[in-house]
Amino acid sequence: MAIQQITSTEKELVAKLKAKLNEIKQAARVAEGYKLWDITLDQDSTDPRLDIVLVKFLRARDLDLSKASQMLTNTLIWRKDFRADELLDEAIDDSILGSVSYVYKNDKEGRPVCYNFYGDLDQDKVFGDVQKFIRWRVQVMERGVQLIDFVHTDSMVVIHDYKKASLFGRTQNAKTATKEIIKIMQDNYPEFLAVKYFVNVPSWGSIIFKLVRPLLSEATTRKFVVCSNDQLYQTLTNSIEEGNLPKVYQQNKVEDRSSISKENKKVEEATTVETNNPAIKMTDTTPAADTTSMATTAAKVNADAAGSSEEDKTVITSVTTTTNVTAPVNDTTITTN
């Protein structure tokens, strides 16, 4: 099942959070009929998709009703100020950014897959205009969410590719953009990560993962799969049909990742949700090494950010501020469901 079922306890809390929607909308000063990800925030609604959205905010705040209410309020305020609802119609030049991160087709459970590449980045070009980069990265996230129907799917799969990633040096613009993206994703996109694969990880990355893993909760680490190079194809195809992989990951096929970016918008529009796909099975490369340190020291600019516990976020922040290693420039923290 690609969607996490709501427990009886969660149902009670969802009902209470739903009853507060008018109050929340008034506090955020959004319209009465406001839609979040195309779902009307109506406290009298019987739309089951609304329950799925609301439980995400509850889970992101450890089922604390007060904190979940505040998180939802803050998200609505941010979306209004950031003009997030306009992003899908906004034309942002992705001639450079389009090969850094994109959503491409889906896994065997119908969940959209977001690919992020951290090697061979020209930081001056990618992060030259910080605000443009931030709006573009959030736009990628919104594209991914658009492919989630909140009926058969409620999350996405993320793949981080560290091939040719550098251990040294981030520009000030990269640091600024990274910090802002991390905060946006943590605060406004709760519980959207199903599983995250770390592929083509260099030896120094594996060492970092092993050091950080003991500091994180099991709930967080079981969403991470660190894949060895010789198991890359098998691991990915266990969860994603080969035909749904970018050609760079298909056997005997080679393609510049930048060429994918030219087609990914069309692919997103054509992506359909499959309802009877077999459940994802983790290979023996399960979270053998935790991705957090990489995903924080680097700027894990990707479609994830909001499922880790508050405890995990504290650990992540601590690692980020105490580690002298500068990983690839593209990683948002480990906060995604």
The strand line-up of the biggest sheet is: 3-4-5-6-7
Strand content: 5-15%
* Strand and helix order: HHEEHHEEHHEHEHHEHHHHH
Share of residues in helices: 40-55%
Task: Give a count of the beta strands, DSSP E runs of length 2 or more.
Answer: 7
Question: What is the chains' assembly state?
Answer: single chain
Largest sheet: 5 strands, mixed
Radius of gyration of CA atoms, rounded to a whole number:
19 Å
Enumerate the spans where pLDDT stays under 50 for 5 or more consecutive residues: 257-337
- Estimate the mean pLDDT confidence: 77
**Gross geometry:** globular
- Class by helix and strand content? alpha/beta
Describe this structure in words.
The chain is an alpha/beta fold and 337 residues long. The chain is built from 14 helices and seven strands. The strands form two sheets. It has a five-stranded mixed beta sheet with strand order 3-4-5-6-7. The two termini are 16 Å apart. The relative contact order is 0.16.
For the structure shown, list the relevant keywords.
337 residues, alpha/beta, 5-stranded mixed beta sheet, two-stranded antiparallel sheet, 14 helices, globular, disordered C terminus
Ordered list of secondary-structure elements with their pairings:
Blueprint: H1 8-19, H2 21-28, E1 35-36, E2 39-40, H3 48-60, H4 65-82, E3 101-106, E4 112-117, H5 123-126, H6 130-146, E5 156-161, H7 172-188, E6 193-199, H8 203-212, H9 218-221, E7 224-226, H10 232-239, H11 257-261, H12 264-270, H13 292-297, H14 310-322
Parallel strand pairs: 4-5, 5-6, 6-7
Antiparallel strand pairs: 1-2, 3-4
